[in-house]
Amino acid sequence: MNLQEIIIAIPAIMMAVIFHEYAHGWVAYKMGDSTAKEYGRLTINPIPHIDPLGTIIFPAILLLLGSPILFGWAKPVPINPFRFRDLRVGTFFVSIAGVSMNLALAFLFGLLFRLAHRGYLDFLGSAVLEPLEIFFVKSVMINTVLAVFNMVPIPPLDGSRAIMSLFSFKYWELFYRFEMYGFLVIMVLLFTGILQKIIAPPILFLYSLFLGI
To answer: What is the distance in angstroms between the CA of the first residue and the CA of the last residue of the chain?
Structure first.
């Protein structure tokens, strides 16, 4: 990517990861857990959500390395599932909230790209429209990557929590126990290229679907 695309991609990444975490906190609040609100995290203000490594440094390294896939993370929103009105239902919907938000954002920015590409936003002028189109495309890709990546059923990713909620409570401890090894498994799959081969097909399918290409 050139310098312009890098500058535009950074706010797209920040928006994607911050709204992802906000969605977890908002749904948890609706399910009876006000922990995120009490800690001042039920906000789209980026400052409380920024993780220096995941929101800034890691995406910047990927950009500098010319990685075809960009992603990052924000500080996890604090959630206390024992405050949910229904532990199983609350766990499931909070787990899929972040993924649902990223898919909604990808759809929204894909729609905006189509409108711009078909000339409906020409009144903005090329000086504004050109960087906007780049932002729309980057946002679609980044939100799609985050959604698909978090669907992978490996703890502590959201997909594993959603699956865990469908099991009997007696098996939940096994999921929590595996979380300490899950990140290591994810890193091994990532650096061996196995993870990319697994998630690339659905990412490309959704990316093309949202952009209409």
So the answer is: 20
List of residues 6+ apart from 4 with CB closer than 8 A: 131, 134
Domain total for the chain? 1
pTM of the predicted protein model: 0.91
What is the phi-psi region of residue 185: left when phi exceeds 0, alpha when psi lies from -120 to 50, beta otherwise?
alpha
Distance of CA 68 to CAs 15, 16, 62, 101, 151, Å?
19, 17, 8, 22, 20
Q: Which residues touch 178 (CB under 8 Å, ≥6 apart)? A: 155
Q: Where are the beta strands (DSSP E) in the chain?
A: none
Single out the catalytic residue among 5, 21, 38, 173. Answer: 21
- Mean pLDDT of the chain, nearest integer: 90
10 Å CB burial of residue 88 (0-12, 13-18, 19+) is middle
130 catalytic per annotation: no
Average pLDDT score over residue span 103-117:
96
Domain region containing 44: 3-211
Supply the pLDDT for residue 70: 67
